[in-house]
DNA sequence: AGTTGCCCCTGCGCGC
DNA sequence: TGCGCGCAGGGGCAAC
C-alpha cells in the first residue's frame, strides 16, 4: 500500500514522536513481521531493549531508525503495514504485531500489519544506510539521486516504462499509484518501451514523478481506506487529487475521455485512452 | 545478466 | 445467508 509519500509521512511522524526516546521493552506478538531477524523474535526484542532512537530516515519505501551504538531498526510497511504512536491504555489494534514501550512511560509504538508483507529487522551498523537496502536505488527526492544516470539507465531497459518505474533498483519509492499518476501527467502509456523514450521525454517523466510525489507528501499521502494512516491514525487526502489511479470509467481530467483499466502484473493500471495511447507492437 | 512470474498473507466486496 | 472468486499502495527469489 504505502509508497514514498505515505512512508515519508510516517517517517516524519516517527521523527516527531519517537526520536530521542529509549526503548524499554519490545513484545513480538506475531513472528512473521520479524522473519528477517534470523536469531528469532526473542533475540530481536532483547537486542532493542535499552536502545535510544536517534533519528528517523527513509530511502524509497524503506524506513530505518538509527539507534545508539550504530545499529538501526529497519522497517518496511509492505502492503498494509502501519506505525502507530499509541497511548498504552488504548485498546490495541486487531493486527498489532510488534509493540515498543519506552522508558519515559509515554505513548507506545505499534507495528500493525494486516497482511504481514512488511517487516522489521535490526541492521548491524546500519545507521547511515542499512546494508540490507544497498541494492535499492536512491529515490528522486534525495540529493544522492542522479537524474542523468537515471535517464540513461531507463533508456537501456528492455521493458515497458511502467515496469521500469516500479523497479526499485532503478528508482525507488514509486509504486502502482504514483507510477500511473506520473505516466498520466507525462501522457505516456505504461507499455511504451523504455528504451524508445527520447532523452527529453525521459527527463520530463522524471519531473512528473518528482512533482506527484512531492504534491502527495504535502497532502499526507493517499488513503483509500483505513489501511494507510499516519502515526496518529489520520488519513492523507491526496486521493482527491488522483487523475488516473482508481478512476476507471470516470472522465479524464484533461480530455474527459473515460479512464481505462487494464490488468498489469496481477494488479491494475489506469490510464487515459486518448492522452496515453497504447504503443504499437515492437518491431524487432 | 536482465527480465518475468510466482508466492508470501489477510480481508473485503461482489456475483451467484 | 453463504461461499467462491477477484482484487488490494510490495518485494524477494527462482526460473527462463
Explain this structure.
With 284 residues, the chain is an alpha+beta fold. The protein has two domains: 4-133, MutM-like, N-terminal (N-terminal domain of MutM-like DNA repair proteins, Alpha-Beta Barrel), CATH 3.20.190; 147-271, Helicase, Ruva Protein, domain 3. The chain has helices at residues 4-17, 41-48, 147-154, 161-166, 176-186, 199-218, and strands spanning 23-28, 57-59, 62-66, 72-76, 81-86, 96-102, 108-113, 119-123, 260-264, 267-271. The strands form three sheets. It has a four-stranded antiparallel β-sheet. It has a four-stranded antiparallel β-sheet with strand order 2-3-4-8, covered by helices on one side. A two-stranded antiparallel sheet has the order 9-10. Strand 2 and strand 3 (62-66) form a beta hairpin. The longest helix is centred in the last third of the chain and has 20 residues, at 199-218. It binds a DNA duplex (16 and 16 nucleotides) through residues 1-3, 6, 32, 61, 76-80, 95, 113-118, 157-159, 163, 166-168, 175-178, 221-225, 227-228, 245, 265-268.
Amino acid at each position: 500500500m504505502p509508497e514514498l509519500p505515505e512512508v515519508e509521512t510516517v517517517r516524519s511522524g516517527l521523527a516527531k514522536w519517537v526520536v530521542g526516546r529509549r526503548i524499554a521493552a519490545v513484545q513480538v506478538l506475531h513472528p512473521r513481521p520479524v522473519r528477517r531477524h534470523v536469531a528469532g523474535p526473542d533475540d530481536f526484542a532483547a537486542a532493542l531493549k535499552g536502545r535510544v532512537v536517534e533519528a528517523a530516515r527513509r530511502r524509497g519505501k524503506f524506513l530505518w531508525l538509527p539507534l545508539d551504538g550504530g545499529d538501526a531498526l529497519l522497517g518496511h510497511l509492505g502492503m498494509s503495514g502501519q506505525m502507530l504512536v499509541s497511548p498504552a491504555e488504548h485498546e490495541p489494534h486487531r493486527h498489532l504485531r510488534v509493540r515498543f514501550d519506552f522508558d519515559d512511560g509515554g505513548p507506545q509504538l505499534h507495528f500493525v500489519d494486516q497482511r504481514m508483507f512488511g517487516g522489521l529487522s535490526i541492521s548491524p551498523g546500519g545507521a547511515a544506510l542499512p546494508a540490507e537496502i544497498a541494492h535499492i536505488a536512491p529515490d528522486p527526492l534525495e540529493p544522492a539521486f542522479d537524474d542523468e544516470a537515471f535517464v540513461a539507465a531507463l533508456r537501456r531497459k528492455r521493458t515497458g516504462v511502467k515496469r521500469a518505474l516500479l523497479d526499485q533498483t532503478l528508482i525507488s519509492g514509486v509504486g502502482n499509484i504514483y507510477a500511473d499518476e506520473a505516466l498520466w501527467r507525462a501522457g505516456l502509456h505504461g507499455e511504451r518501451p523504455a528504451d524508445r523514450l527520447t532523452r527529453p521525454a525521459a527527463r520530463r517523466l522524471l519531473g512528473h514523478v518528482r512533482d506527484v510525489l512531492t504534491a502527495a507528501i504535502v497532502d499526507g499521502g493517499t488513503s483509500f481506506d483505513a489501511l494507510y494512516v499516519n502515526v496518529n491514525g489520520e488519513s492523507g487526502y491526496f486521493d482527491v487529487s488522483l487523475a488516473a489511479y482508481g478512476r476507471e470509467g470516470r472522465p479524464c481530467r484533461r480530455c474527459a475521455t473515460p479512464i481505462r483499466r487494464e490488468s498489469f502484473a496481477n494488479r491494475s493500471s489506469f490510464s487515459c485512452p486518448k492522452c496515453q495511447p497504447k504503443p504499437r507492437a515492437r518491431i524487432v
